[in-house]
Structures are given as structure tokens and as C-alpha cells.
Design goal:
This protein has 206 residues and is mainly α. 74% of the residues lie in helices and 0% in strands.
Length: 206
């Protein structure tokens, strides 16, 4: 009997692993279904079928479609924030190449760009706890950018924007370029975000 044999693990441990695998399968299926179908057209039945699980398993893990969408966006936001924080830890100059790469990856990945757009659409179409939660996630991102800008030595004492305002514009620029590149790739060359940051983001020329 090997150390990796399931029979060596307690039954509770195997059950927990099975639940974790089911949860991951549902989240993975939800990501593609919500992106391709949109929140309104997506159904729990379709997500369960895509995940290869019973419909009851989706409800058992997430409670319903809205809670599943919230869990998916929370996962996506947490992953994005963690990646951004790692990139930004060395300051704006060191972070820029990572942010440029991240923009290109999101824009060139159909599912990522569709899900980003669907999240934004849900947030502006609805006035409910989930929409407010999504708006709060966006605020957390802007606050993180503002903290980075505040930590950088300003290029001038006469800046026309506060750090918070500049963070709002840079966040909008980032997400706007993702949508523009998805719609018209030739309009957003790989270095466009970098060059825009050098002009507006108080980042020195590379």
C-alpha cells in the first residue's frame, strides 16, 4: 500500500477532497457559461451539466445562481488583486511590465474578457447586494492603485489630480483598453498601456 493510496486517508478527508473537487468543477463551468451566455441567460442546469455534476450539488455548494456568480467573481477578484499586489510591491516602475502583460492576457483570453464585461454589466444593470459588492471590489482595486501612487515620489507639486482621481482614471484606462483590444486588436498595440502610463501615471520612461 503506497502513501498516496486513498485507503490510507480518513473517510472524512476523502469526503472533503471530493467536495473541493466538485466545487472547483462547478466554478470552472460557471466561468465559461456566465462568460459565453451572460448572467441573465445562464442557468444552474447548464452549469451543472457543463461541470458533470448533479444540479443539487450546485445548490448544495452555492445556494443558487446569484451566489454562484458572486463566488466566481470573488475568486476572480481575489486572484487579480493578489497578482496585482505582487506586481506592485516593487513600485510603479517595476510593476508596469507586469500590468502590461496582465492587460494583454485578459484581453486576448476570450473567457476572461467576456467575464470582465459581464461583471461590469451586472453591476450597472442592477441595484442589489451583489451589484454593491462588485462596486466595492472595484473600489478596493482603485484604493490599491491610489496607495501605490501615494508611495511614489510625485513628479510635480502642481499635479492636477489627486491620487484617488488618478487611480480612477488608470483603472478605467486599464479595463477600457481590455475591451477595446478585444473589439479591435490592432487599435491597442502591446505597448500602448505602458506609453499611456508613462504620460499620465507618473511612471518614468522605460
Amino acid at each position: 500500500m503506497t502513501d498516496g493510496d486513498d485507503t490510507t486517508r480518513p473517510r472524512g478527508g476523502r469526503r472533503a477532497e471530493g467536495k473541493a473537487r466538485t466545487r472547483e468543477a462547478v466554478l470552472s463551468a460557471a466561468r465559461s457559461v456566465f462568460a459565453e451566455r451572460g448572467y441573465g441567460s445562464a442557468s444552474v442546469e447548464e452549469i451543472a451539466r457543463e461541470a458533470g455534476v448533479a444540479i443539487g450539488s450546485v445548490y448544495a455548494h452555492f445556494g443558487g445562481k446569484q451566489a454562484l456568480f458572486a463566488a466566481l467573481i470573488d475568486r476572480t477578484t481575489a486572484d487579480g488583486l493578489a497578482r496585482a499586489e505582487r506586481s506592485l510591491s516593487g513600485g510603479a516602475t517595476e510593476a508596469l511590465p507586469h500590468l502590461v502583460a496582465q492587460l494583454g492576457e485578459q484581453a486576448d483570453d476570450r473567457i476572461s474578457s467576456l467575464l470582465e464585461a459581464e461583471t461590469w454589466l451586472y453591476a450597472i444593470r442592477n441595484d442589489d447586494p451583489l451589484a454593491r459588492h462588485l462596486a466595492d471590489d472595484d473600489r478596493r482595486i482603485r484604493d490599491g492603485i491610489a496607495r501605490l501612487l501615494a508611495a511614489e515620489r510625485p513628479s510635480s507639486e502642481n499635479d492636477r489630480f489627486t491620487d484617488a482621481e488618478q487611480a480612477t482614471v488608470l483603472n478605467a484606462l486599464f479595463h477600457g483598453l481590455i475591451r477595446q483590444r478585444r473589439l479591435c486588436p490592432e487599435a491597442v498595440p502591446d505597448d500602448l498601456f505602458r506609453r499611456a502610463m508613462e504620460v499620465f501615471g507618473r511612471v518614468p520612461d522605460a
